[in-house]
Amino acid sequence: MHGMQGEGEPAGEVYDWYVRGLRLLETGNAAAAAELLAHAHFREPDSASVLEALARATFDARRYAEAHRFFGVLVETTPDNDYARFGLGLSRMRAGDVPGAVEQLALAAAMRPERADYQQALREARATLRARAHAAGGPPVEGA
Fold this sequence. Notes:
CATH superfamily of the largest domain: Tetratricopeptide repeat domain
Shape: elongated
Strand content: under 5%
Helix content: over 70%
CATH topology of the largest domain: Serine Threonine Protein Phosphatase 5, Tetratricopeptide repeat
Number of helices: 7
Low-confidence stretches: 1-5
CATH class of the largest domain: Mainly Alpha
């Protein structure tokens, strides 16, 4: 974590960037948080905490393709991370992959059934899947 400051890096160490990034995210400045957390992720690519915060920040900054990629890596490296699956599901919804969204949101909801936000997102994704199948004149969608 220590070392010389690289070209174009913010002042401080990775932990400082992480804490400042979370603060920016909590105060609604997702784009600035994403930029700061990207520096932290570059320096500490194996940190799941940094990656999760970066995924959240990019999603909140409406950079859905990036958020999808970051949440996907997080799911691959920590498959039992319900929040990563939730984020991946929401990112897939934004990308138009409704069946993929339902799959991830169902996993997140099964892992943490007490999370009302997970249940609500899953209901909405399933309703979208049913509506698209109905609009296309197809049969009811399995699992939706």
